[in-house]
C-alpha cells in the first residue's frame, strides 16, 4: 500500500497542516497532562487503525519518559492496573468520543461524570478538543495511506517549521 498523497508537499495540504498543527499547539500548551494527551491520542489511533498516528504517539510518549508497560497496555486499559482514575476517565472519553457511530448516545453520562470528577474546565476543553483533533488526524492519515514505522520523535514538529 503506497501513500496516496503527501499533504505536506501540496500547497493546500501544507496550509491546512500548519493550521491543524496550530490547533494542536493550543492543546499541547493546556494544563491537560502531556502523558494523558499521548495516551488518549494513542487509544483513539488504535481504535481507528491509524498506523502512522500509533507510531507517532507511541514514540513521542516513550521519548517523554512514558513506560513501555503503560504504552503496551493502553489497548487493554480496563483490564490493567497501571493507569490512574483520571487517566481511565480520559481513556473512556476517548473511546466513547471516537466510537460515536457505535454508541448511540455518544459519550455516556457516567463517563462525563468521571471526567468532571478528575479534570477542571480548561483540562476538559483540551481533552474534548484533543479527541476531536486526533480523530481528524487519524482520518487524514488513513485516507491517504500514511503508514507507521518510520516516525522519529520530533519529526512532526520539524516538518511544520
Automatic annotation (TrEMBL):
Q: What InterPro entries does the record tag this protein with? A: AhpD-like, AhpD_core, CMD-like
The residue ranges of the Carboxymuconolactone decarboxylase-like domain are 19-96
* One Pfam family of this chain: CMD
- State the name under which the record lists this protein: Carboxymuconolactone decarboxylase family protein
